[in-house]
Write a structure and sequence with these properties.
The protein is mainly β. The chain has one domain: Beta Barrel (Porin). It is built from 1 helix and 19 strands.
Length: 309
């Protein structure tokens, strides 16, 4: 019966992902950053779930390539970004959590055209994000516990959006922040046993327009994940992550080579360190892309260390 219920939830998740769609977005991460269903270890010796205050240090490395827009000439552009971040999460009440995250952005842009190769770099604190989440058990049986989670977040334009070079504003994708208020709503379902966790979640991100009239496309994120305790200190993770974003707009005109679908297969591990901390590592491998224009998403490497007090 337990295996049947887990299989049913898994089939439901796959079905939902197959009938809904999502775009590639330059400021939207792909994955579950709201209810954080897979953030905790399953190891029985760990009491991380009961920690009221948690701190995390995380980093992501991402890259993509695309053709230059028409007004930039004929050629290609490669974008790379390291995104380390600090995050604090506080359990206000049982099932209710508040969190704040502040990233730093280190970007490199390489453009190759008939005029030659141009390499540009930028760095700075990114936009802070505040998240509130609620999770509650909706059914508990002898084999598994089923929970529902909801999440709402606001991204504040705390990062600089007016970085300049030689007296001119740098191009939008070299800015540390987006310069806009963005909002995210979503949630999901999770089934947990002693050794396994399966979850499905979906989020919609509504992006604003900055004062330079640049608007990153609204995005929708879908996630299907499974987690298994391999031993007393190590969990194995496997996720399917999908993202759909509308094309970016600049002065209300569509920006070339932005937006579209991308899907990732994401294997990973989570290592328990003592009873109050954990380390995680995962790689988002693009397995399907249907992006607008000429653009290609590359693999994303994610890592993090979390400690609870």
């Amino acid at each position: 019966m337990r295996k049947f219920k887990l299989a049913t939830l898994l089939i439901l998740a796959i079905t939902c992902i197959s009938v809904v769609s999502a775009d590639a977005c330059s400021v939207c991460r792909c994955g579950d950053n709201g209810c954080q269903f897979s953030e905790q270890t399953l190891t029985p010796s760990s009491d991380r779930a009961d920690r009221q205050l948690r701190f995390s240090i995380a980093n992501s490395y991402s890259s993509k390539s695309n053709a230059l827009s028409q007004d930039e000439g004929v050629g290609d552009e490669k974008q790379r970004e390291f995104r380390p971040s600090l995050k604090a999460s506080y359990k206000v009440l049982n099932g209710i959590n508040l969190s704040a995250e502040l990233p730093m952005s280190l970007k490199r842009l390489e453009a190759v055209s008939d005029d030659g190769k141009e390499i540009s770099k930028s760095s700075g604190f990114g936009d802070a994000e505040l998240t509130g989440s609620w999770m509650s058990n909706i059914h508990s049986g002898p084999g598994a516990t089923y929970s529902l989670g909801l999440s709402a977040a606001i991204k504040i334009p705390s990062g600089r959006n007016n970085l300049q070079s030689d007296g001119e504003r740098r191009e939008e994708h070299l800015q540390a922040g987006s310069g806009s208020y963005d909002y995210t709503l979503g949630g999901g379902l999770v089934a947990t046993t002693f050794e396994n966790r399966v979850f499905i979640s979906a989020y919609y991100r509504h992006n604003g327009t900055n004062k330079y009239e640049y608007h990153y496309g609204h995005a929708t994120l879908f996630n299907l994940g499974a987690q298994r305790a391999l031993n007393s200190w190590l969990d194995g993770l496997l996720q399917l992550n999908a993202r759909y974003a509308k094309a970016d707009l600049e002065n209300r005109e569509t920006v070339d080579n932005t937006g579209g679908w991308v899907g990732y297969l994401t294997p990973g591990i989570r290592l328990a360190i003592g009873n109050i901390s954990s380390f995680s590592l995962s790689v988002q491998i693009p397995v399907w892309q249907n992006l607008n224009g000429d653009q290609t998403e590359k693999a994303v490497v994610l890592s993090g260390f979390t400690v609870g007090i």
